[in-house]
Amino acid sequence: MKLVILNGSPQKNGTVARMLQLISNNVNPEYELKWIDVYDLKMMPCLGCMKCRSTKACCLPQDDAHLAGETISQADALLIGTPTHWGNMSAQLKLLFDRNVFRFIDKNQKGMPVPLQKGKKAVIVTACNAPFPLNFISAESRGAIRAVKQVMKYGGYQVLKAIAEPGTKPNKNISQKTRKTIIRTGIKI
User: Fold this and answer.
1) Which of 123, 173, 133 is nearest to 6 (CA)?
2) What are phi and psi of 24, to 5 degrees?
3) Per-residue pLDDT for the chain (189 aa), expressed as one digit of tens each?
4) The total number of structural domains that make up the chain
């Protein structure tokens, strides 16, 4: 079984990456882990042409979005991390999802979305500078979680857990509360 870890943060040792590492250290040992630092990928912007919906392939020249997308589609589960940017997921993570929409959803004869990754599992983590409860009141963390959950929903993934770490600007350490949540819930993908 394969677990793909998507670090959607430009900070390879930041809060999101450390949260992903903490969770991955407690994952079922049956999984083969593949870590992708999304900000290291060389990806052209999505053209929004929607040709991929009919051809089942991105029409842009081969780049890292193609390769990462193939890895994602072959995985049994995803562990996705993103910092909160303007109440949303990071731009590079969004770009990766945009470039691979055809791997997540199709449409039936009536034009209704059909999930292509049905039954696969996902866990989402996010972090933001806003302290608790402002991170939820102003929809900062909630917006990032909602955006990633939407992609997962359309793809057919079952989101097992979403964890938000607020107030990261003054404190670069993962809070004890978040650590306990990760360990106590025993996220077993």
Assistant:
1) 123
2) -65, -25
3) 999 999 999 999 999 999 999 999 888 888 899 999 999 999 999 999 999 988 999 999 999 999 999 999 999 999 999 999 888 999 999 999 999 999 999 989 998 989 999 999 999 999 987 666 665 556 667 889 999 999 999 999 999 999 988 777 666 788 888 888 877 666 666
4) 1
Q: Which two tokens stand for residue 28?
A: 């079922």
Q: Rounded to 5 degrees, what are φ and ψ at 128?
A: -150, 160
The CATH number given to whatever domain includes residue 131 is 3.40.50.360
Q: Is residue 189 part of a domain?
A: no
Q: Is 68 among the domain residues?
A: yes
Tell me the residue ranges of DSSP E strands in the chain: 2-7, 32-37, 77-83, 105-107, 113-115, 121-127, 158-165
Cα dihedral 2, 43, 145, 176 in deg (nearest 10): 70
Q: Does 157 reside within a domain? A: yes
Question: Nearest 5°: CA angle at 149, between 188 and 76?
Answer: 45
Peptide bond into 115 cis (omega under 30): no
Tokens of 187: 């996220």
Q: Which residues contact 139 (CB under 8 A, 6 or more apart)?
A: 87
Nearest CA among 118, 103, 88 for reference residue 8: 88
